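Repro:
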Amino acid sequence: MNSCRWEEGLAHLGEEVPEFLDSLLSDGTRNVLYIAGAGFDPRSSQLPSIVAKNGVSRRGIFIREERPNPDYELVRRGDDNAEVLGRLYPTSDVISVHIFDEEHAVVGGQSVCLKIRDCLSDSQLNEFTDVIVDISALSIGVSFPIVGLLFEKLDQQDRINLHVVAAASPQSGQFAEIAEFAERYQHPKGFKGDRSEADDTVRLWLPQLTSAKKRAFSNLYKELEPREVCPIFPFPCHEPRQVEQLLEDFSGELTDEWGVDLHQMLFAAEHDPLDLYRTIARVHVTRKDVYDRAGRLSATVLSPIGSKAQAIGALMAALEFDLPVAYVEARRFVPSQEPCSGELDSTRLVHVWLLGEVYPLHRSGASNDT
């Protein structure tokens, strides 16, 4: 089997991330474009402040995700975070993106791509040495299309580096709760996968389980109608009993509804995106080879609605293998009822170097076969 594109990918975890960013940006030659969310999440400014304190030449593009009937307190927090980001990045654009249109259709991904194109021409993009997309405070429906757009523009060159970063706090530390989901599942813009999928395609679903969004998984399963389900559990993980808790919370779905046995459960490190990327790549490539030999069509569908770190791993697999991504958009958030200390944990920072100078074998579409 050919080696996967990021089999030897470069990533940094925890306190390695600020050390790496300091090292990368301190030589005085870098010009950074930083793209991030400017919402209610206090993680909005955690990583941007690490980049800004280096004094590097920089420009910011900050996304305000607008949903119907927003909670006043969350709007106020978003305003405060946008003000902080504006001070950190004096040269910046704040883009308001409506996630739903007047007909309640999900349009956030399409809208954000159009607006980024409007405020960032190709000639302006070429002025930067490094583009950093921070998904900490962005939804899947917005962050995946942004990375997909930049990946398409910057692939097959080695002059501009593309990085993806996240402050990947555990689910138990959420700062807001989803009060309402959309009625139907969605594909982020650019992540529908193979358009030629036929009615007899054998569909494998890889959901990244999280108790906080349990309602979304029932909607996804009913609409996707997968033939096989291999749920992904975070292990190793920060909470020693997290796998046990997920097995308890999803006991009915796993055994009665999805028909999952022990051999179909996948495990990937909670805070290491490359671990999940390699797991998905191995499952997809092996399974596709088997079905191809049998003359059958197969598809692997990802639902990366667990941790931010694992979402990056799923994003990488989707980019490389053109895999469909299915999720259920949040229609409305409310402040969390759980107490929050307000302290952000630097041990759960994540950085992945997606494209650029550290991958010479991919500069001109060269093969990385072994």
